[in-house]
Amino acid sequence: MGWLKKIRGVVGGSNGDDQEWIAIDGVGDTPALLRMIEQTMPRDAMLNIVKPRSAEVEGFLQQHKTDSSNPAEGDYYVLMSGPVLAHLAQLVEQIVPEPAFGAVLVTHGSRNLLEAYRRDLNEDVVWLSASLPADTLANARQALDVIVRQCAAAASQPTGMPQVKSA
Length: 167
Known about the structure:
The chain is 36% helix and 20% strand. It is an alpha+beta fold. Helix 2 (30-40) packs antiparallel against helix 4, helix 2 runs antiparallel to helix 5 (134-156) and helix 3 packs antiparallel against helix 4.
């Protein structure tokens, strides 16, 4: 399925299937999102990265892509087994603050388990499939809530001069 078909319709609010979704807003840290995916999503699922925006990330995805990938469209699938996600998270962390790619999805068979679109436009909503097993869903929500709190704390810190602690 092409990445444009995957993007949730803005007007209709549908994603093309009957699946219900849980939205977690405020997940702005993409490396943390990748680590959460590695820790909570099924290992036999696939990570789908859409529209990489840096040569480093695209080169990494080229090395690890599966046959399902369509590099001409900027649509890469990688296996979630092994250290690939941890290495991708490290790479993305190194290129921050530049957004690394347009979308992150986790697919299992023909359905999506997690969707995070428009990362390149600073969109910070992550959609979790309500059809995930209860323990997987609970673990993913808990990990995403931690990321949300960290992002909110980082956003509330004043920029510019470092804070000095007094005794």
